[in-house]
Structures are given as C-alpha cells and as structure tokens.
Amino acid sequence: MEYDYVIAGGGSAGCVLAARLSEDPDVSVCLVEAGGDGNSLLVRVPVLGAAMISGRPKINNWAYHTVPQGGLNNRKGYQPRGKALGGSSAINAMLYVRGHPSDYDDWANLGCEGWDWNSVLPYFKRSEGNARGADALHGDQGPLQVRDQATPRAISNAFVDACATQQIRKNSDFNGENQEGAGLFQVTQFHKGKRLGQRCSAAAAYLRLIQKRSNLTILTRSTVERIVLDGKRATGLMIRRKGRREVLKARREVILSAGAFGSPQLLLLSGIGARDELAEHGIAVQHELPGVGQNLQDHLDYTIAYRSPRKDMLAVNPRGVWDITRAAFRWRSQKGGDLASPFAEGGAFFKSDPSQPRPDMQLHFVIGILDQHLRKIHVHHGYSCHVCVLRPKSRGHVGLQSAHIKDAPRIDPAFLSDSCDLEDLKKGARILEDIMTSDPLTPWRGKRLYPHDGSDAALEADIRARSDTIYHPVGTCKMGQDDTAVTDTQGRVHGMDGLRVVDASLMPTLVGGNTNAPTIMMAEKIADHIRDLC
Fold this sequence. Notes:
single chain; alpha/beta; FAD/NAD(P)-binding domain; Cholesterol Oxidase, domain 2; 2 domains; 7-stranded mixed beta sheet; 6-stranded antiparallel beta sheet; 25% helix
C-alpha cells in the first residue's frame, strides 16, 4: 500500500498528526499502532485507568523495565507506556499541565528557534477545549476537552489547605498567569456531549469523529519493525500485521511518533544511530547519528503514604469494592462520582528554596495508597503524595537489547547519577513531610507506611529504596543544531530525507510538569510545518 504520509505510533502525537494531516483531502495518511483501538471501558472510565498502570496483566501497556539503577540500589525501574490508540493518554491520570512558560524559552535559548513560549501558546490554545472558556491563555474550541474535576474528594481540598501551612498558596489554574501554588488539577475529560465524564484521550479527542475519512487509514495491532530506506531517504515502513510482513510506502514522509523509547528504538533498528551501538547488535550503519537514544530525562518520584481511619477514598478491600460498585450505577446515569476521578486529584508546584526563579518541585496527591505503581496492593484505605524534581540534571539513554523489535528497548534513565538531583529531592521530600503532618490532614491521618527516623541518612536511604518514575520520559531524539541533536526544529532527522520524528523524544529538556499536553502541542505545531501553514 502507498500513502503520502505513514506514521509509526498512534499515541498522543500520532493521533494529532493523523487528524491534522488528513484534513487536506488531497493527501493520504496511514497511522500504524501496535495496540488496540483504545476505546474499552478501562480506557473510557477514568478511575479504571489505575487497573492498567501496573502492567499485571499487560492491558494497553508496554510495561517496560529499566536496566538496574545504580542510584536506586541497583533496582530495575518500571516504565509503563500506553499501547493503544491514544498511547499513554489512554492510561494516564488525565492531568492537563503545560509546564512553566520559561521552559519553552529555555528551548529557544538552546537553539530551538520558534519554540519559545509566545510561539507555542497558540498551539496549546488550538488543541484545548476548556470548559472554563477562552481567554488570553486558554482555548475552548479545541478537540482536547479539559475540565475541572466534577466530584473531588474532601481530602483533596484538605491537601490544598495543608500546603498553605507551608506558605504554598492556593492556585486554581496551574496553566494560568502563575504556575506556583496548590490546587486541584484540571483533567482531559469530556465535559459535554454523549461522552460526558469519559476520559478524553488523544484518540478520543482527535480520531473518533474522523476515523472514517476516506483519506485516512488506521491500522491497529500492527507492529512497525523498521524504516524502509533508499540510501538517505525514508520510503516507507516494514510492518507485521496479522502474522505477515508488508511494506507501507510513503510518497512524502515517514513520521515516527513512537515515543521517547519507541522512536529511538526504530531508528536504531533501521541502522540510524551511533556506530558502536549498531555494531554491538550486528546492524549495518545506514546513517551515523550519535545522538539517537541519548539525552533521556525523566521525573524521579518519591512517595509518602498513610493509612486512614476514614473510608472516603479508594481502596482494594470489600468496602472499597462495594463503593466502586455503587459508583458504577451513578456513572451510568450521571457520568460522575467516584469513577470520574483522575485518582491524582490534588497537586502543587513550589520552590524548594525562595532563591529559585520558578517552581522546581511538583506534588501529586492521590486518593489512595499508590505503592510501586499499584504493583504492591494495600487493602487499607489511605492516601499518598508524590514529589519530583522538575528539572533533573541526570541524563540517561535508550538503546537496544537486540536487533529484534520483539525485544524491548534498553532503558537507562541513570536516576540520581547527578548528585544534585538527590540533594534537591531531599529538600522537596522534607517540605512534603511537613505538609503531610500538618493539621488540615489530621482527620484522615493514620499510620504512615515506610516510616524512618527523620535523619538525612534515613531519608536518603528511603529515596534510594523506593523512588521511581512519575512517567515523563523525554529527550531521546532531541531537536536542535548541536552535535547530539537528532532532528531540526521541525522534527526532520538530520542528514535524512523524508524522515521526521514527532513526539516527546524531541524535547531538548524536560518541562516543569506533566508531558502529555506539551506533546500534543508539539504535534499541532509540527503538523502546521508539514502542511506549510506556519
């Protein structure tokens, strides 16, 4: 089969590209996704997303693992990634967070012209359909529906009050004039129409209503094995579908949107990358590009959790199951209640030290005990809060375990390899401990899980023993002009023709927040470049 554009990966970026490029009736687009259609109840009902995070079993989830992390007592980390149309937006907590405006100015200062805050804001607004309405910073006509939480728990509001005891002011809009403060997250959730209350994944937002366009082909449960090359030009994708190999030819471009792990893996498997990495796996060099897979950045997360004597939270026990059952009936009739929760209801952005020019820490407050990505189940009611350093200095990489696509990529975030990250995380953890022991949370507070004696050594030991990702890997095909850049500022792979990368792997540095909304923005912006609309 032959198309104008062939897109590898139906995650957040791939869904946006497929929708925007196929708006032109004179071009044909094929979107290839390894997972299913991302439209099951587990995806559509928000709180059920928690059932997919653990990867046990692997439902809509690649459930990757890292190599042993020296900074984390040689533990292997866990890296859930969405495997369905919508990608990780089909299994995430639906939090709509853009990061700090200065993050994008940082990109521009690193040589990524056109990615400063003033240049990216129109694309955030274009994508956004915010229930609050449009203003200078928000859009209300975009496909990605954004809303306030319909039924947040009382404890989530108490968390906001608890932050105030540490001089973290209340903030009703983390994407407003000032990111700093504590509040309840806005979520990517339908606020109107027949899908009211359902998760608004990138697939639900961008593809559901247009997937029958005559010039758009969507192939699910189809694995991309490699890029087909003719010298230095990408001409298509080799895929495996229904047990058979076939080639999808691209007249104009091959676009990789397989994410921070999948896109560098596909480049390497196709012979594009560092010579030593390719030689190790017997792959012939088609184009030497040493930056492929380098520059991996992620938010390392440390959690404090408590049991609770109160029952107005989520739990895996008979009472909790009964509450969810009752909530299911309300969901059917009202599309609200407990099942509409993003699980991580409250949050905060704050400075670990007043001298910081912008918030350098983020909190996620969860209405249940979230331990080891829900791989360790606690039957008690309780709550947890997560802290991460927003701009870590540690840099890792993504490589290959073998020359076969069936083997997961080799993921090494190199967590805490820069000692500054540990010191910063300890600062954030100290402030979080003060929040969690403050008066507003007293009615809910029971026994703390994983207590320690409060010493610096004990805190460091606990961080090394239990910390892991909060699911924001980026940077492995970074855009820019230096020797380690993989693409230019429009995602075009340096030294290649007809080959582009569009996903979170392009980010030269992590943004100060969650990464789904920025990834969607990036795809909106580059879609305009492809269509020559800029």
